[in-house]
Design goal:
The structure is a single chain. By secondary structure, this protein is α+β, with helices and mostly antiparallel strands. It contains 4 helices and 6 strands; from the N terminus they run βββαβαααββ. It has one domain.
């Protein structure tokens, strides 16, 4: 049993009163990305102005990501990929283009429950 490999902030961005964070962890070979956005200015449209979301990758697709980034430290490679920016669309496109499947869910807003299968 591999257990918890590591936990790392992929990005933490403060833009005025808005805060965006994405944290990655690998447990038993499976990658999980946990995001949290705090945007007080949109509270009138979405309730409390907060959104939490999760990307889950099984072992096989975590391994595919590791191979794409040619790395032994996937979390550090993801941190470099994002480069301190909220590049979730680019990340999702990279996964789709390389046949990497994941489950994504927007926890607070329940706007999506995406499963990418090519």
């Amino acid at each position: 049993m591999e257990g918890l490999q590591d936990v790392l902030y992929i990005f933490e961005i403060c833009d005025g009163n808005n805060t965006y964070t994405l944290r990655g962890s690998i447990y038993d070979g499976e990658l999980t990305l946990n995001g949290y956005d705090n945007i007080p200015g949109i509270s009138h449209a979405y309730g409390d102005g907060e959104a939490a979301y999760v990307y889950n990758f099984d072992r096989e697709n975590t391994q595919k990501l590791t191979e794409i980034f040619h790395t032994e430290n996937l979390l550090e490679s993801l941190k470099k990929f994002f480069g301190g920016k909220k590049a979730l669309t680019e990340f999702e496109n990279l996964c789709r283009e390389n046949g990497i499947y994941f489950q994504a869910e927007d926890i607070n807003l329940r706007l999506s429950d995406r499963h990418f299968v090519l």
